[in-house]
Structures are given as structure tokens and as C-alpha cells.
Amino acid sequence: MVDRMYVPPLASRRVKQTQIRSRDKWAETDLFVEQGVRYFFRVIGKWCDMNHCCDANGYTVDYLNFARIWLRCRHEPATWFALIGTIDKSTDTMFVIGDGARLNNGWLRLAAVS
Fold first, then answer.
1. Alpha-carbon torsion, ordered 47, 105, 91, 64, to 10 deg
2. Where on the tree of life does the source sit, at the highest rank (predicted)?
């Protein structure tokens, strides 16, 4: 049995493709999202931090947690190098891509925690 909560009808259809480069502070998407609507993202590819490559989920490095205060995007549930979304560059609306978070109205911006 398929759970429609996690496999929405449009999940197999690409609505918008955007390339994200981790060196850019913000990645403009031209996607407008609405509060109370659930969105699903599919992220492919990897990026590297020195010799450590990861996907959009990032990776856990406990010994670097002290450095979180210097991160450009501070979002507590996020791991290092995780792909983060936010509405209009507001830190109050940050969410980890793919976690099923409900969003506010506004233009979607993406950032990699580095």
C-alpha cells in the first residue's frame, strides 16, 4: 500500500529544476511557496568539504559543533553542509530540505550550511 502523505501525485513530475552551488550565499529559485501547503523536493548530486563528499543531507561532525555560531546559516536540526531552505532569506523560516516542513508564504531561497 502506498502512503500518499509521502508519495504525492506530482512527485514523479519535475516542476522546477535549480542548480545550487554551495559557494553562493543564496540561490534564487523563482519558486513561490504558500503557508499550509506541503512541498516535496528531490535533490541529486553531491558537494565536497575538503576531502569529505556528501549529499543534501550533509554530515555529522560532533567535534565542530562549537563553530556553529560562525555558520552563515544557523539552523539547529541541520547537519554540516545540509541543504537549507528559507523564505525571503529570513532565518525565522529556515528548514532542512526534504524534511516535509510546512512553509510560510514567500519566495524560496536555498543555502548550504558550510
1. -30
2. Bacteria
